[in-house]
């Protein structure tokens, strides 16, 4: 069986993905972010067009079940902008959801994930291409264990990769102990997000040793050590032999962060971050991080 990346317009060969923002959001609605929703189709189209103009070719949207993915709009956005889009299933932290919605998923969460990966999201026909779950701050609560157990079951049924939100970049080793240890998910099927937010080189090397993917995503905020520490971190990982496990993303989560609304947005990844990392890693490796690596990380032998 040949591995394929599952986009909203169908499965493609990994090499067809092109320059990829490996972690971002076109749409996102959460009760944790009132009044800051990403819910504007024209703004999403403009953001994709700006990313395309900067040299981008693909975006992986990590917005999971129940948080306003707008899967119905994704195929047309992909067609009109020429940017390939990958959509997620999965479930975020419990705080993002109403209790009633979570209760309705008890006993059938893995089934929902599998259905969205193989049959499509609702009646849209859009199939998800990854499973997104989330850890907690330096720990895994019962909700995280429930969602990750369901994600592992869905992975075994479909081959889909599992992408993990690390809360403030923490808990990477606990996540790997659960997913790869207890639940038996191969390390190269796990993508850890937000590692740049907790720049511990020892943890990053230990995580990389599992074979997982290390995603450095999101431009600097005042309380995160992101851009200015990222070159040092990725260079250390490359020097330790883990340069082939790196991914880069923008992680735009609120409307004000879009480039079309005055923020850094998706183009920032290529406009600023890329050149800075080239000084640390060299242009050849950064090019592979943006093109070859996402194709490998998000491809699957779809069952």
- What's the CATH architecture name? Alpha-Beta Barrel
Number of strands: 12
Estimate the strand proportion. Answer: 15-25%
- Please identify the top-level CATH class: Alpha Beta
Q: Which percent range fits the helix content?
A: 25-40%
Structural class: alpha/beta
**What characterizes the major β-sheet?**
6 strands, parallel
Major β-sheet strand ordering: 6-7-8-9-10-11
User: What's the oligomerization state?
Assistant: single chain
The global form is globular
Q: Predict the CATH topology.
A: TIM Barrel
Could you say how many structural domains there are in total?
1
Give the SSE string: EEEHEHEEHHEHEHEHEHEHHHE
Mean pLDDT across the residues is: 95
Would you write up a description of this structure?
This protein is α/β, with parallel strands linked by helices. It has one domain: Metal-dependent hydrolases (TIM Barrel, Alpha-Beta Barrel), CATH 3.20.20. It contains 11 helices and 12 strands. It has helices spanning 41-53, 74-81, 99-104, 109-118, 142-158, 172-182, 201-208, 230-239, 268-281, 283-290, 292-298; strands spanning 4-7, 10-12, 20-24, 58-61, 84-86, 88-90, 130-134, 162-165, 190-193, 213-217, 246-249, 299-300. The strands form 3 sheets. Strands 6-7-8-9-10-11 form a 6-stranded parallel sheet, with helices on both faces. A 3-stranded antiparallel sheet has the order 2-1-12. Strands 3-4-5 form a 3-stranded parallel sheet. Helix 6 (172-182) links the parallel strand 8 and strand 9. Helix 4 runs parallel beside helix 5 (142-158). The radius of gyration is 17 Å and the shape is globular. The termini are close together. 50% of the residues are buried. The mean pLDDT is 95. It comes from Streptomyces roseochromogenus subsp. oscitans DS 12.976. The modification N6-carboxylysine is found at residue 132. Keywords: Hydrolase, Metal-binding. This is Phosphotriesterase. Zn(2+) 1 binds at residues 23, 25, 132, 251.
